[in-house]
Specification:
Layout: H1 4-8, H2 12-22, E1 25-32, H3 36-42, H4 52-59, E2 64-70, H5 74-82, H6 95-99, H7 114-124, H8 138-141
Antiparallel strand pairs: 1-2
Bound molecules: inosine-5'-diphosphate (IDP) and magnesium ion (MG).
Inosine-5'-diphosphate (IDP) binds next to loops.
């Protein structure tokens, strides 16, 4: 999901374009201010961390753009594309490496494993919001 800083900076379109051009398929999306309950649930592993209050406050401060992307090894591919948590250390060419400076304003969230992806998708989307369709370039994307 594009976090409130990425939305405020007008980065949604450029981020979508990166994933589309990679060959990933967008199967669900929503633009919303995430309610407190789902913010706490999404970041539950960080509840006791010192940065949690500011993280939570920031995520609740404005709208986010939530997306589900599908494709071969989508979770690990997307994690590589977003770059490391601290944008100052993120490789150039990654989203955080190209577009951010500060850990607390790192523009984008992505699930860190297939298990957390399954959990986060079901937290934010109902099954009928996940859309099945074909991209016409699929035969050229996969061997
Ligand atoms: P990730 O987003 O790369 O998966 P996590 O360790 O899961 O990184 O942390 C979740 C989010 O919490 C980060 O993206 C960042 O916005 C925030 N965060 C993590 N560590 C710190 C920190 O040390 N200071 C401030 N914010 C942090
Ligand atoms: Mg994480």
């Amino acid at each position: 999901m594009v976090k409130p800083d990425g939305v405020a900076r007008g980065l949604i379109g450029g981020i979508i374009q990166r994933f589309e051009r990679k060959g990933l398929k967008l199967v669900a999306a929503r633009f919303e201010r995430i309610p407190e309950k789902r913010v706490l649930e999404q970041y539950r592993e960080h509840l006791e961390k010192p940065f949690f209050p500011s993280l939570r406050h920031f995520i609740e401060s404005g709208p986010c753009f939530l997306m589900v992307w599908e494709g071969k090894n989508a979770v690990s591919v997307v994690r590589k594309m977003i770059g490391t948590t601290n944008p100052a250390e993120a490789e150039p060419g990654t989203i955080r490496g190209d577009l951010a400076l500060d850990t607390g304003r790192n523009v984008i969230h992505a699930s860190d494993s297939p298990a957390s992806a399954a959990r986060e998708i079901s937290l934010h989307f109902s099954p009928d919001e996940i859309i099945t369709y074909k991209r016409t370039d699929e035969p050229s994307l996969y061997e």
